[in-house]
Write a structure and sequence with these properties.
This protein folds into four domains: about 5-155, Orthogonal Bundle (DNA polymerase, domain 1), CATH 1.10.150; about 160-245, Beta Polymerase, domain 2 (2-Layer Sandwich); about 265-325, Beta Polymerase, domain 3 (2-Layer Sandwich), CATH 3.30.210.10; about 335-565, Metal-dependent hydrolases (TIM Barrel), CATH 3.20.20. The strands form four sheets. A seven-stranded parallel β-sheet has the order 11-12-13-14-15-16-17. Strands 2-4-7-6-5 form a five-stranded mixed β-sheet, with helices on both faces. By secondary structure, the protein is of the alpha/beta class. Helices cover about 45% and strands about 15% of the residues.
Amino acid sequence: MQNSEISRLFDDLADLLEIDGANAFRLRAYRNAARLISDLPEPMADIVADSERSPDELSGIGKDLAKKIVTIVETGSLPQLEEMQEKIPAGVVDMLRLPGLGPKKAAVLFHDLSITNLDELKAAAEQGQIHSLKGFGKKTETSILEGLARAQESIGRVFLADAKPQADAIVDSLAKLPSVKQISTAGSLRRRRETVGDLDVLITADDSTEPMNALAEHELIEQVLARGDTKQRVRLRSGLEMDLRVVPEESYGAALQYFTGSKDHNIVIRRRAQDRGLKINEYGVYRGDESIAGRTEEDVYAAVDLPWIPPELREDRGEIERAENNALPTLIELSDIRGDLHMHTTATDGTATIAEMAAAAKARKLKYIAITDHSKRVTMAGGLDADRLRAHWKEIEKVNAATSGIEILRGIECDILEDATLDLPDDVLAEADWVIAVLHYGLKQPQAQIHERLLTAIKNPHVNIIGHPTGRLIGKRPGAEMNISEILKAAADHGVMMEINAHPSRLDLNDTSAAAAKDLKIPIVISTDAHAVTGFDVLQYGIYQARRAGLEKKDVANTRTWAQFKKLLR
């Protein structure tokens, strides 16, 4: 049982209890526990398994919470959560996907209007029944209608970062079975899309019985939904569904290519096959009735006169033409990263000190980092004014002087305010080693105002980079309205870098915008936005986004050595 799963269960319980009207103390206890467990550097399951330890030895975890943690680790479920799920319809929880609609407002809609799903919510909003409720208004009613389309699209989809660990755990266990010869994930997970709707796993095996039995009995599986001779569908405890397909060895490559997709990519591949008098399907490549390829993906692509194409690029966005011209990029790898330039400490809303963050980064073989706590506008995070920031920088200097093997930059995540000014004066920013300018507030302003704000930051001589440029939260909040081409052009003209924020809920820039930045030769920085020592672990998801954008090592600034990177600093 992974920490992220335990954390999710407590967060889900807190949401349901808040909708049900539970007292604030209980809610805070569960949310604090979720955050603590998520940030914990060691697996909670290891603590539970250790007879000499208990979860209640952790600050903030009492005996009652400790018992619940033990129950989750040992059974994979939480009875109290299941009771609340029986009480609160799942459609009410779906409302939380809408921007600005938290548990308190969902509770009002549920209790006062008896709304139990998104269809009923849409009808109530269209009929004008919502704006008169306490705590709502015309603006909220309009926002609900605008957010419903996005919410409908995201229902049933989870972050890649939530889906991948579950798929990896199942694949790793099945791969150890004597009967299993080859195994791989497929679908959108293998293409590393931001969100995943379900899971696909392909195997070759001497006998399908052993892997299907093992999957049915796996600790992550809640229910077998269907089972045949070569295909099994299961539902995971998290709600995700998975298809396991057992394919012949001679068809494994063809099946992997087919089920990886994307649909648009595969259409082009099939057309190429037809132009060559061939037919491609999940069983192989055929000339008439004769199978000429199918054992490996390389053979399938070679049959249509193409080199193998990395799964992340298979979206019909020019990868076929690049493959034809032997111009496919050598995609960036996680091991290429040498620095992380966006993170927070206890100075604002982080959970670790400067020294602890530096030690964790050094343990991951990073050579330089930037400590970038919030500026004063982010009051909820205890953002720093000029005096506190300068004192904070002095602490960074002390830690840097006392720490060998890694450089620690004095940075700041500086808000671009709604009036198109920066949150700190130029004389302060001039003292920084690294300045990230960001949009946190006023994301619904008209495009002209958003552009004015971003251009103010881009033209400022002390700003190094625009962080999470659109401000989006995947499936929850759209990014600010902007013409990203104009913003990228300005960044290129003024020598300002752009960030891919690796946090799974952001992944901002997205893949297409990052590809456009590459075309303009804008250096990209992939950073974690870590708020804890475990926050560095999300870096791989920023790498996946960069790979989908076709980025190579040379396109990413923080793949450079410290000596090389220093030359990029203003």
